[in-house]
Amino acid sequence: MAIINCPSCNTKISDKATTCSGCNYDFISKKTAQGLDQEQLLAKQRMQHIKRKYSLQMQAMVAIIAILAGSLVWYFGGRNGSSVMNLLSYVLLGIGAILYLATRVRLIMSKKSK
Questions:
Q1: CA distance 16 to 23
Q2: Residue 27 backbone dihedrals phi, psi, to 5 degrees
Q3: Closest CA to 96 of 77, 71, 78
Q4: 16-30: pLDDT as tens digits
């Protein structure tokens, strides 16, 4: 008896099982409980991967906007020594930079896991 991954949900199950206990994927008819066959299942997984990649790209854009906003706050108000504006600019720059780097790492990891 070997342990395999379900093609629908990646749950580890026995190769002797006829259905997956996690998602009710039927190994005999090769269909999920929703009636999706293997080809439709792969298309659904590709679409989820594309949506996740798009979401990560939008998060990177938000981080770039935060960096830009921090730069603008520093340029127009933080250089004069105003402690509140100076602090705000550094916080926006820091948060934006950390968020951008973390998002880029997550995008790279997403590409490797594909």
A1: 16
A2: -75, -20
A3: 71
A4: 877 787 777 777 776
DSSP string, 35-90: --BHHHHHHHHHHHHHHHHHHHHHHHHHHHHHHHHHHHHIIIIITTT-HHHHHHHH
Token couple for 38? 């293997």
Instruction: Decide if 57 contacts 64 (C-beta within 8 A).
Output: no
Model pLDDT for residues 46-81, shown as the tens digit of each residue = 888 899 999 999 999 999 999 999 999 888 876 666
Q: What is the number of domains present in the chain?
A: 2
Same domain for 76 and 21, yes or no, is no
